[in-house]
Amino acid sequence: MKRRRFLQLSAVGGTIATIGLSPTPSRANSTTTETNFELTIAPANAEMIDGTMVYTLQYFHGFDNPSPEMRVREGKQITVTVTNNDSQPHGFIIRGVAGSYIHTMQPGQTGTTTFTAPNGGTYLYLDHYKGQLNRLMGLHGAFIVEPEGDGKTPAGSETPYSVADHNPQLQALFDAFGNHPRFPGDRWRAGDLRREKLWIFSQVDPTLNERVAAGELVDPASIPDNFLPRYFTINGLSGFDTANHHLEDGNAAHDGRAGRIMPSGKQGEPCLLRCINAGLATHACHIHGNHCFELARSDYKFRTEISSNIYEHDTWELLPLQRAELLLPFERPPDIPLDRWPPVEEPFPLRYVMHCHFELSQTAGGGNYPQGAVTHWQMTDPL
Amino acid sequence: MFDWEDTAFGEEITYSTFGCDVFKADPQTPDRLEPDVHIYREGAEKLDRIAPDGRRIRFWTFRDTDPAAPNQRVTHPAPEIRVTQGQIVHTHLTTSTGPHTIHHHGIEPTTANDGVGHVSFEVGDGYTYQWQPARAGSFFYHCHRNTALHFELGMWGPLIVEAPDQGDGKKRLYEDGPTYDSEMTWVAHAVDPRWHLIQDHDAGLCGLDVGLNRYEPKYFMLSGVWGNRAHYDPTTLIKAQVGERVLIRLLNASYTILRVKFTCPIEIVAADGHSWGRETWCPTTRRVPANTVLELVTAQRYDIIVEPTKTGHFPVFMQFRHWITNKVHDNGKGQLKAKVRVT
After folding, report:
1. C-alpha to C-alpha distances, A203 to A260, A269, A292, A320, nearest whole angstrom
2. B214–A contact, CB cutoff 8 A
3. Core-most of A163, B142, B316, B326, by most CB within 10 Å?
4. Does B324 touch chain A (CB under 8 A)?
5. Which helix (H) or strand (E) holds A233?
6. Which CATH architecture has domain B183-342?
7. Which Gene3D superfamilies does this chain map to (chain B) (predicted)?
8. What pLDDT sits at residue A62?
9. How confident is the model over A308-320, as a mean pLDDT?
C-alpha cells in the first residue's frame, strides 16, 4: 500500500509551501473579516492521499496559503488583486457576486477589482478563463460573507443571513435552538469557527493535470466526456486527512485544515455546514448521526435562495458549481434508546461520518475505500 | 470495564485502520437493553440471476436467518426490515464471507451501532446492533464495508418504520401524518456487469486499482425487477382504485442521478424519513403537478402520496443519468417505466 509520506503542496520550481500541518495552527476560533485581498496564481504540486503527486494551479494568499478562504462583512468595499505568475492566461470571478470579475490576465500581469460585499452567504470564487478547466486544476476557493449585525432575528438569534433575506421559517428554526424541547442547549453562534465548517468538494483526474503540465492547450469542451476522476477531495484533502484524530483536548479539534472540515462540539451546539461543489461530478452528501436542515441553496443563476420550507435531510444533492448551506443541529442522535442516553459503556466522542453516497467518490486511485470525499463529525459530550 | 479491543474506541486510528486494515471485532452490544423485536441478517449471500439478455449476474445480499422462520430463501434485494416507532430493535448480523456491517441508513443510533468500520469496527463473526427508531418513515439498510462495491453488488434492503396504531384503523406514514390505504416501495438501482465479476470482498482496499471510480451500468432495475418488466411485474406495478390513497416510498439506490416523472399529480409528504408540513420551519408538503421531473441523487428518498381521481394507466418514467456528464447511461438506454394502474 502506498502511503503519502508527508502532507505538502509545493510551488513548482521554487518555494516549498507546507499546508495541512500549519506551522502556527490557529487556535483562535473567532472569525476575522478583511477588505483587501492580494492573490497570486502559481502552479503547485499537490500530494494525493495515496502518495501520487499531481500538478495543480492555485490562488496563493501569501506564499504558503493556497486556495485561501476569503471572509468579508456585508456592505464593505472589497478589493481583490490577482497577479498571474503562471505561464498561461487566467482570470478571477466570484459566482453570484456583482462586480467581482477580473478580466483575463496574461502571464505576469496583475488585475484588480473593487466591489461591495453582497448579503450574507457562501460563494465560490474561481478562474472562469477556459471554462471549467482551470477550476478543476485547483483555481477555486470560498468567499464567505458575514451578515451585518450577525443577522439577528427579532428574538435576537444570530443567523448567517442578512435580515433583508430572512423569512419566518428561517427565523423560527434559529429561534428554536435552546428554546424548543427538541433542541436543548445553545443557539447557533455567528463569528465562531467552531460553529461553521466549510466543505468544498472537488475531483482530480491526474491525466488532465498531466496534459496541462505538459503545456497542452486543453479544449474545455472536451473535458466532461473524458473526465475520469481518481481523487475526490474536500478542501483539497481526502479520507484520513479530512478529520483530526488523536485529540487531547476539545479545542484542538478545530485546528488546521482538517479542523476547518470536521465539526466537533457538545450536544446542543448547532454547526453551519457551508457546502460548495467546485468539481464536475454531482455529489450526494450523506451524513450519519443527525439529519441536517437545508437552509439555502444556489440556483442556476448562482443566486442564493433561502428556503421557505426548511427540509431535514440525511442526503442532499450538490450539483457542479452549486452551494448549499445546512445546519447540523448536534441534537441527541434520535435513535439511541431514550433509556440509554447518555450512553455509559460506549465512550464519547460519538463519531459519525459524512460522505458522498455516489460511492465512486469514496475511492482513491481506483480503490482504497474510504480515502475519498469523506469526513466525520463528533459529539464530545452530552448536555 | 467494557472490552473495546480491536475497535476505534480502544485502539489508535491510523491511515491503515481507515481502510486497508480496518478494525474487525465482535464486541457485546454496549448499553444493552431487552429488545422488543429481533431482526436477523447474514451476509454476504450470493445469488445468481439471469438478465433479460441471458447474461448471468452474480449479486450479493443479506439473508433473513430468523430462527423462528428457518430456511428462508435468498433474495435480491435483501429482505425488508419493518419495525414500529419506539420499539427497541436488535439487528443481529452474522457474516458468512469475511467482515461486513449493517448501516441503518437514516437511522441515528450510537457510533458502535452505526456500522461504519473506520470510526467503530467491522463485524468479524457477529454483532447485535441496537436502535430505537424515534420517527416513522422510509429508510434502508446496507453493508458499509468497502461500500462502493458491497452496496452496488446488492447488500441492501428497505427499512420501514411504521407509525404506532392510533386506534382508528387507519394506516399513517407517521404519527398524526398522512393516511394511506396501500403502499409500494420503489427502489431504483443499476448494475455494472464489470463490477459483478469482482469476487474479492476486499477488492482495492489496500491500494490496488480495481476501477471502482468508473461506473458504466448496463442494467436498470426497480426493487429487484429488471427494468423491462417494471411496468407490469406484480412486485412493482401499483394497482389502485379511484379515491384510494397509495403511499410510494421512493429511493435511489443507484450511483446515478435519477430523474423520475409521474404522469399523475402527486404529493410529497416526507423526505429522508423526516416528515414535511408539521413544523413552523417546514410548514407545507409539496403538491407536484403531473409530468414534473423529480431528481434524486444516490440515497435520497421521497415519500409520495398518489390519490387517483380518474381511471387509466399512469406511467412513471425513470432515467438514470451519469454523475459527471449528466447523460442518460448506456447511450440513452438507462431508463425504465413503472406504472400506476387505476381502475
Report:
1. 19, 31, 24, 11
2. yes
3. B142
4. yes
5. strand A231-234
6. Sandwich (2.60)
7. Cupredoxins - blue copper proteins
8. 86
9. 98
**pLDDT exceeds 50 at position A24:** no
Of the candidates A229, A239, A245, the beta carbon closest to that of B213 is on: A229
Which chain B residue shows the shortest CA-CA distance from A229?
B213
Domain-wise residue ranges, chain B: 4-162, 183-342
The Cα angle at residue A139 between residues A137 and A144, in degrees rounded to 5: 140
Which amino acid belongs to residue B260? V
Q: What mean pLDDT do residues A235-248 have?
A: 91
Checking if the pLDDT of A28 tops 80, the result is: no
Q: Which residues of A touch B109 (CB under 8 A)?
A: 333, 335-336
Taking all residues of chain B, what is their mean pLDDT, rounded to a whole number? Answer: 97
Interchain contact, A345 vs B2, CB within 8 Å: yes
Cα–Cα distance, A286 to A297 (Å, whole number): 16
Q: Left if phi > 0, otherwise alpha if psi is -120 to 50, otherwise beta: which for B279? A: beta
Query: Is A351 touching B (CB cutoff 8 A)?
Result: yes
Please check whether the two domains, B4-162 and B183-342, share a CATH topology.
Answer: yes
Which of the four pLDDT bands, split at 50, 70 and 90, describes residue A248? low
Give the separation between CA B273 and CA B249, rounded to whole angstroms.
Answer: 10
Q: What pLDDT, on the 0 to 100 scale, is given for residue A12?
A: 54
Query: Cα(A352)–Cα(B118) distance, rounded to whole angstroms?
Result: 10
Whether A19 has a pLDDT exceeding 50, the answer reads no
Under 8 Å between Cβ of B74 and B47: yes
DSSP E strand stretches across B257-324: 257-262, 266-271, 274-275, 286-288, 293-296, 301-306, 312-321
Going by C-alpha positions, the residue among A291, A361, A359, A376 that lies closest to residue A326 is A291
Nearest CA in chain A to B283: A309
Closest residue to B212, CB basis, from A170, A338, A360: A360
pLDDT over 90 (residue A250) = no
| Subunit contact A169:B281, Cβ cutoff 8 A | yes
The distance of A363 to chain B (nearest Cα, Å) reads 6
Model confidence at A14, in pLDDT bands (50, 70, 90)?
very low
* Average pLDDT rounded to a whole number, residues A288-306: 97
Q: Decide if B198 touches A, using CB distance below 8 A.
A: no
DSSP string, A116-175: E--SSEEEEEE--TTTTHHHHTT-EEEEEEEPGGGG--TT----SS-GGG--HHHHHHHH
Contacts of B3 in chain A (CB under 8 A): none
Residues of B in contact with A312 (CB under 8 A): 271-272, 274, 282
Closest to A201 measured CA to CA, from A239, A236, A240: A236
Closest Cβ–Cβ partner in A225, A239, A363 for B18: A239
Residues 6-45 of B with CB under 8 A from A: 8-9, 12-16, 18-20, 30-31, 33
d(C-alpha A264, C-alpha A259), whole Å: 9
**Quick one: pLDDT at residue A91?**
98
Whether A293 and B118 lie within 8 Å, measured CB to CB: no
Nearest by Cα to A336 from B89, B144, B4, B162: B89
CATH assignment of B4-162?
Answer: 2.60.40.420
CB-based contact, B257 to chain A, within 8 Å: yes
Lookup: cell for A295: 437552509
Chain B contact present for A290, CB below 8 A: yes
**pLDDT of amino acid A7:** 40
Q: Is B154 on the interface with A (CB under 8 A)?
A: no
The residue of B3, B102, B322, B323 whose CB has the most chain A CBs within 10 angstroms, and thus the best one to mutate to test that interface, is: B323
Q: Is the CB of B212 less than 8 angstroms away from the CB of A311?
A: no
Domains and CATH numbers, chain A: 36-146 (2.60.40.420), 152-198+231-381 (2.60.40.420)
Mean pLDDT by 10 residues, chain B (343 residues): 92 93 97 98 97 98 97 96 98 96 98 98 98 98 98 98 95 96 98 96 95 98 98 98 98 98 98 97 98 98 98 98 98 98 97
